[in-house]
Amino acid sequence: MDSILVTGNGPLNGQIPIAGAKNACLTLMPATLLSEEPLTLTNAPRLSDIKTMTALLQSLGAEVSSLQDGQVIAMSSHNLTSQTADYDIVRKMRASNLVLGPLLARFGQAVVSLPGGCAIGARPMDLHVEGLEALGAEIELKDGYLHAKAPGGLKGAVHEMRFASVGATENIVMAATLAKGTTVLKNAAREPEIVDLVECLRKMGAQISGEGSSTIEIQGVDRLHGATHQVVTDRIELGTYMLAPAICGGEVELLGGRMALVESFAAKLDAAGVSVTETQNGLKVARKNGRVQAVDVVTEPFPGFPTDLQAQMMALMCTAEGTSVLEERIFENRFMHAPELVRMGANIEVHGGTATVTGVETLKGAPVMATDLRASVSLILAGLAAEGETTVSRVYHLDRGYEHVVRKLEGVGAKIERIKGE
Ligand code: UD1
Fold first, then answer.
1. Which among 25, 118, 200, 318 is annotated as catalytic?
2. Does the reported pTM lie above 0.90?
3. How far is the CA of 236 from the centre of ligand 1 (A)?
4. Which of 70, 100, 246, 275 has CA atoms 20 to 30 A from the CA of 363?
5. In this structure, which topology does domain 3-18+233-419 adopt according to CATH?
């Protein structure tokens, strides 16, 4: 297995290009199942999760080609052969469950494996099921699979979600595009990836309003047509690399970044003593003077502080002046990076969903292990700021969500290399 070797090397300066959003692409790809005409995505990120979604769509009979070095994904679902998402693929990636809504809407049936446990918590699908049932679906759990049927077709309805789940919002919105009549989804998630999905669905002929607010209204249509859509910038990759100059010093411009994607995160950086300014080409980040100051963080649905940046923010807080409290409210069990950071000399105490971090002047390089996608990159950030060498193993987690991480960080002066394993 490959590992990544990082050597602390002082301030970082230069530019980092930000890719299209993994999480947007993973919901835009299943949207192809809604139409028999082609859907083409541009600005797609080159990631193993995208390959997993490609394999899933192909297993359903969709044609999926990767063009222009993977940045363009051309898909067609004119000749689907299956409506079953198999456990072997779904267990690798929870976002596989996003085929449920589209398959059900277009074919009146779908069989999708439950994802099972995942490293950062239980992650059930009850909110997806409740929403689709409100649209008239009959859903049964048999042998670990959700068997969904809508014999007379889906019908628009008013539905309020108990929690603003991102995936459930995406599944319900996609399903409602082909339902009869109007659906009003209340307490919908407001993430930019949902706005991006709706913009794409609209290009395909869907009638939707209210995306980005907590009420989304969908007027069902008989059919959707083909479209070409550019995937929105990855705000989590953006936030991750914003932390690189924050933790190491220096000044880095994140190309393609926009403040609207990371407002609450940038406000925390500002409070910590890191300046974030908009430029013509993106966002420029620089640490103001000396050590950053400790700030408290609570993760929340968008527009709150994203859970997907909590691990990386913790790495920064490990080197801050003072004590910060990080509260994780979206996922249980999302502090697996804490014991690894402690191996690098960090001072962290975890109690339930709260981590208390008292900053130390310098972290020390150490061999550490990535436990999930965002945890892995938090260890790289910590390694960049540490004295000596840090080896991060289990890098396959990183490959799920960060393309060309070595090249991007080398480009701003980091000392980082990938070591090929057995
Ligand atoms: C998406 C993102 C993920 C991010 C998360 C929260 C993708 C591919 N993934 O995941 O990176 O961390 O949003 O911003 O876009 N829940 C239930 N029942 C459900 C669905 C969810 O209880 O039916 C719970 C989950 O266990 C979790 C919380 O709700 O505790 C948030 O989940 P959700 O918003 O659905 O996240 P995902 O769509 O899985």
1. 118
2. yes
3. 15
4. 275
5. UDP-n-acetylglucosamine1-carboxyvinyl-transferase; Chain (3.65.10)
37, amino acid identity = E
Structure confidence by residue, pLDDT tens digits, 6-63: 999 899 999 999 999 999 999 999 999 999 999 999 999 999 999 999 999 999 999 9
Where exactly are the structural domains of the chain? Answer: 3-18+233-419, 22-230
Separation of alpha carbons 185 and 183, rounded Å:
6
Residue 25 known to be catalytic = no
Q: Which amino acid residue places its CA nearest to atom 2 of ligand 1?
A: 23
Fold match between domain 3-18+233-419 and domain 22-230: yes
CATH class of 22-230: alpha beta
From 330, 333, 373, 374, give the residue whose CB has the most ligand 1 atoms within 8 Å, as the site to mutate: 330
Q: Whose alpha carbon is nearest atom 32 of ligand 1? A: 165
- 276-333 pLDDT, tens digit each: 999 999 999 999 778 999 999 999 999 999 999 999 999 999 999 999 999 999 998 8
3-state secondary structure of 34: helix
Q: Which residues form ligand 1's pocket by a CB distance below 6 Å?
A: 23, 26, 94-95, 121-128, 163, 165-168, 193, 307-308, 330-331
Determine the length of the chain. Answer: 422
Ligand 1 closest atom vs CA 22: 8
Atom of ligand 1 nearest to the CA of 26: 8
In which band, very low, low, confident or very high, does the pLDDT at 119 lie, cut at 50, 70 and 90?
low
Q: How many angstroms separate the CA atoms of 298 and 337, rounded?
A: 17
Q: How many CA atoms lie within 13 A of 68 on its CB side?
A: 10
Provide the token pair at 415.
């000392």
Q: Give residue 290's pLDDT.
A: 85
Residue linked to tokens 């990631």: 47
Confidence of residue 121 (pLDDT cuts 50, 70, 90): low
Cα separation, 103 vs 110, in Å, equals 6
